[in-house]
Design brief:
Elements: H1 2-35, H2 39-61, H3 70-81, H4 86-90, E1 100-105, E2 120-128, E3 132-133, E4 149-154, E5 159-163
Parallel strand pairs: 1-3
Antiparallel strand pairs: 1-2, 2-4, 4-5
């Protein structure tokens, strides 16, 4: 009788433990899905790292990486910082095709000394390696149809997700220019030191 009672208690304990293990495994997988960062954020983080590597390169070499082989020139920096996860730095998690999902602004030259902070440095592009281009080469449909846009890295070190309609209004060249054609656009007004703002 005592053995039967012990067996029933043991069976109840096993069932309770099995229930809680199953429950926690379901909750854990659900929380992981909810807490995992969106691929757009992961893409922006990789682009930010590449932007930082450009700054490291500029600091060490006293010039920017040449746009003709910028991926090759940044590779030693990427390998020294993230040796086991090199490719994700160069690749957007949505893009499974090419070795690099980003391109450098074609107007960036290695001998440029002081870049305006709002100048586009790197941006999402079609897959490739050592790619360069401009506003027309930005891939803005990678992160969903409901929110078209692209991650853009600027010369000041920042990375922003820019809506597709604002991409052509960004600063792509060194020249001071009126950027923006729509009234109310956040790029309508520019200020040049010593001059009045233009609209």
């Amino acid at each position: 009788m005592k053995e039967k009672k012990k067996l029933i208690i043991l069976l109840k304990v096993v069932l309770v433990v099995a229930f809680f293990l199953t429950f926690f495994s379901l909750i854990r997988s659900h929380l992981y899905i909810k807490l995992a960062p969106p691929k757009r954020v992961v893409c922006g983080t990789g682009l930010k790292k590449l932007n930082d590597y450009c700054m490291y390169y500029e600091h060490n070499e006293r010039k920017l990486p040449a746009s003709s082989n910028w991926c090759d020139l940044l590779r030693p920096y990427a390998e020294s910082k993230t040796p086991s996860i090199l490719e994700p730095v160069y690749q957007c998690p949505v893009d499974k095709i090419g070795p690099c999902s980003y391109a450098m602004n074609e107007n960036i030259t290695a001998d440029a000394k002081e870049l305006p902070g709002d100048l586009v440095l790197l941006f999402e592009s079609a897959p490739g390696w050592n790619q360069t281009g401009g506003a027309d080469d930005v891939v803005a449909d990678r992160h969903g149809e409901n929110n078209p846009g692209a991650n853009i890295a600027f010369a000041d070190g920042s990375v922003k997700f820019v809506p597709a309609e604002d991409i052509p209004t960004l600063r792509w060249t060194f020249e001071v220019q009126k950027r923006g054609t729509t009234t109310g656009s956040r790029f309508d007004t520019i200020e040049v030191p010593g001059q009045q703002s233009t609209k």
